[in-house]
Design goal:
Length: 282
């Protein structure tokens, strides 16, 4: 089903591996360049190896969960044979969340987030990223929602693929894969929504100055990706989710973390954290 996504400045989507169309890896280092025609990036969890297909071209997301295309259109999303959705994308900056992919079914969005960790190629569990490229843990089904329906009993789902046995308890948010237990900290829909609001702030501040209200100091603002920006020449700020809240990691000279700020509130012109308030200078 095709669902149109229109927001004030952006849309949000999620992308997956295409089967049956040409595969085109990201072949340049400019994937995060914001002036590309359509820039798509995962939010909350960085998903490497997801692919989005437009017409006869498919591209996979990089290690930052990002990919770019040259034009708007109807995009198809797959993970191996697992069809997720088709979405009309009409904007140039697209943030990706499970709640956009399954925008009328929050339960399916939560199942998808759990399954991302079950499908992860890595054996060392990472809350903030999954790798799906060449994963042998992805089930052999044609449709994700049908896969859930056919393998779920109440809150439990189990399946075997490539001699790997996986069980998921959606009530306890636990994934058991080859007898190894993983506790999955799910990201709430409200936190995903706040990530969308953060992107609105980033887009509004692009190429302007923002001011620290406590000191009056002004910084030039440069967008590096849809969740990362530069303050002046010395600071890089990256947003990620920890314990279901947005944390801003502030790097000094892009080499080491000097501060961790908790986002408290924000709108199109002001960003409020527990240690500082920033406002866009018009």
């Amino acid at each position: 089903m095709i669902r149109k996504l229109k927001y004030l400045l952006l849309s949000t989507v999620i992308v997956l591996l295409c089967v049956g169309c040409s595969s085109d890896k990201n072949d340049d280092e400019e994937v995060l360049k914001v002036n590309s025609s359509v820039l798509i990036q995962t939010a909350g969890i960085k998903i490497e190896g997801l692919t989005i297909c437009l017409e006869d071209t498919c591209k996979t997301t990089d290690k930052e969960g990002a990919v770019k295309f040259k034009k708007n259109g109807t995009y198809t999303f797959r993970l191996n044979n697992l069809h997720l959705a088709s979405l009309d994308i009409n904007t140039s900056k697209v943030l990706i969340t499970p709640y956009i992919l399954f925008d009328t079914n929050d339960t399916m969005a939560q199942w998808f987030e759990l399954c991302l960790h079950a499908f992860d190629k890595k054996n060392n569990f990472d809350t903030y990223s999954v790798t799906l490229t060449d994963s042998t843990y992805i089930p052999l089904f044609d449709d994700f929602q049908m896969f859930i329906k056919n393998n779920k009993i109440n809150n439990n789902l189990s399946y075997t693929v490539n001699e790997h046995t996986t069980a998921i308890d959606s009530y306890a948010n636990i994934v058991i894969r080859d007898e190894v237990v993983r506790n999955i900290p799910l990201i709430s829909s409200s936190t995903y929504k706040q990530l969308e609001e953060l992107l609105l702030f980033i887009l509004a501040a692009e190429s302007k100055e923002i001011q620290q209200l406590s000191t009056g100091k002004k910084f030039s603002f440069t967008t590096k990706s849809l969740n990362t920006f530069l303050l002046g020449e010395n600071y890089e700020v990256k947003a990620q989710v920890e314990d279901d809240e947005i944390i801003l990691l502030i790097y000094n000279n892009v080499t080491e973390i000097t501060k961790k700020a908790h986002v408290i509130d924000l709108n199109n012109t002001t960003l409020v954290t527990n240690i500082e308030i920033y406002s866009i200078v018009n």
